[in-house]
Amino acid sequence: MKAVTALLIALTSASMALTRVYFVEPVKAEWSGWTGFQDTISQTITCNFDSLKYVELFAGDTCNGGSYVLSVRTVPGDFPIASGAGNAVRSHSWVAFDNITVTYPESIVKGKQYEFKFTRSGSDSIQYYYNTDNPYEYGVIGIPGMNPHPTQWDLALRVNGVMDTIGANWFGAVPSSSFFV
Known about the structure:
The protein has about 180 residues and is mainly beta. The protein has a single domain (about 20-165), classed as Jelly Rolls, CATH 2.60.120. Helix content is about 10%, strand content about 40%. The longest helix is centred in the N-terminal third of the chain and has 14 residues, at about 1-15. The two termini are about 35 Å apart.
């Protein structure tokens, strides 16, 4: 009985593994961090997951402290569907947003685009890192007030989600019951 229980737990946890949605390493730093429009920085991501679980932003100097605030919004429409907060443990490190509240889970649909928008609480700017080599081809960094807008830059950010499980009788687009008929 113990072996069966252990097997069921192992199979269930394997089916709930995190999916790497977006992963861009920090390459260049933006030290000023004043973006001009409510001091935000964002990244547009094309959805390839069923539920959002974990986000990390690579931030610069913590300066005057204050937490980081995440808002996930639909593109187009700018409708908020999820939010979270994170605190920097030290300067120039990954800031974890591990308690994300998804207000409208039905709004997360594969193939749609979402903007992951970051702000700071308090009166400080966001010092962020980015990569100019376009490592993520399905979205771009959002820097309010920058003209021309960079189309090849991506924010140093990690996003993880979970894919829904697919039944054992499903082979791509054809149910197994009619696959071998």
